[in-house]
Specification:
Length: about 270
C-alpha cells in the first residue's frame, strides 16, 4: 500500500484521483488545490478521454491543502502526484524529491529541456523514485506493439506512422503557448517518447509544423532517422476544426487501450 497525495485537481488530477480509487494498493491521503471549490468538491472538471474513471469523491479523512508545500511536508504522504501546469513541474518535483517522496509527474516533464534535465538531476540525487506519466508506454495496445517489435514477431519493422490529432481543448492554459508549449510539447511528446521507447534514440529528426492558436507549434509532422528502420514518422496537432474530437488510430481500433495509464504505470512504480 502506498499513500498518495495529489497536487492539482484539474482534469488530470481528477482523472488520477479516479484511478487511484480503483486500486487496492494505493490510498489517497491528501489532495491540494488553490481553488477551495475544487477541494470541497463543489466545482468539478470534465475529463476528455472516454472509458476511464471520471474522478472520485474525496472522503472526509483525506487531508485537504491549499498550499502544495504543506502536502509535500505531510509525513503520511509517500508518493506525490504532480498534476499542475507544466511551468510548475520543476519547482514542486524538486521540492518533493528533496523531501524524500516518490514522485509521479504529469507530462511533459518540464517546459524546457533544461528544466527536464534539472528534474532528472534531482531524481538521481534523491532517495525516492521519480516517474513521468508518459502513458503510451503502458496502454494496452501500445505495450503489445512494443512487445511484438522486440520479439520481431512479424519480422523487422520497415515503417511506422503515429498520428494524434484533435481540435484545440480550449482554456487559458492550452491557449498560452508560453505556458503549455503548444501541441508540439503537450501532445506530440507522447509519440516522440513512444518512438524512442520502441526504436531507441534516432540519429536525427526532421520536423515541419505551423502555429495557429497558441503562438507555438500547433500541428507538426516529424520524420525520425534510424539506421535499421527505413521510415518512421509521427503527426500531432490540435488545430483541427471544432468538434473534430480526438483521433488516435490505435486508440480507435484497440478498445482495450482505453485503460488510463495510472493503473498500469502505478504497477511499474510500486514494483521498482
Amino acid at each position: 500500500m502506498v499513500n498518495v497525495g495529489i497536487i492539482g485537481l484539474g482534469m488530470m488530477g481528477v482523472t488520477h484521483l479516479g484511478i487511484y480509487a480503483t486500486r487496492p494498493d494505493a490510498r489517497i491521503v491528501a489532495v491540494c488545490d488553490k481553488d477551495p471549490a475544487r477541494l470541497s468538491g463543489k466545482s468539478a472538471v470534465s475529463v476528455n478521454i472516454e472509458g476511464i474513471p471520471k474522478g472520485s469523491t474525496i472522503s472526509n479523512d483525506v487531508k485537504k491543502y491549499e498550499d502544495a508545500a504543506d502536502l509535500i511536508a505531510d509525513p503520511n504522504v509517500q508518493l506525490v502526484d504532480i498534476c499542475l501546469p507544466t511551468p510548475l513541474h520543476l519547482k514542486f518535483a524538486k521540492s518533493a524529491l528533496s523531501a524524500g517522496k516518490h514522485v509521479m509527474i504529469e507530462k511533459p516533464l518540464g517546459r524546457t529541456s533544461a528544466e527536464a534535465f534539472e528534474i532528472v538531476d534531482a531524481a538521481d540525487a534523491a532517495s525516492g523514485i521519480a516517474m513521468p506519466a508518459m502513458c503510451m508506454r503502458f496502454w494496452p495496445g501500445w505495450d503489445w506493439l512494443k512487445q511484438v517489435i522486440n520479439q520481431r514477431k512479424y519480422g523487422a519493422v520497415l515503417s511506422a506512422h503515429l498520428r494524434r490529432v484533435t481540435s484545440h481543448p480550449g482554456g487559458s492554459f492550452y491557449s498560452d503557448g508560453k505556458a503549455c508549449g503548444g501541441a508540439l510539447l503537450d501532445l506530440h511528446v507522447h509519440d516522440a517518447d513512444f518512438i524512442q521507447y520502441c526504436f531507441g534514440m534516432p540519429k536525427a529528426v526532421f520536423s515541419r509544423g505551423y502555429s495557429k492558436i497558441t503562438g507555438q507549434i500547433d500541428h507538426i509532422i516529424t520524420q525520425y532517422i534510424f539506421d535499421d528502420v527505413p521510415m518512421v514518422t509521427a503527426e500531432g496537432g490540435w488545430a483541427m476544426a471544432n468538434g473534430f474530437g480526438l483521433e488516435i488510430p490505435a486508440y480507435k481500433y484497440c478498445p482495450e487501450s482505453r485503460i488510463y495509464e495510472s493503473s498500469i504505470a502505478l504497477d511499474r512504480l510500486l514494483n521498482l
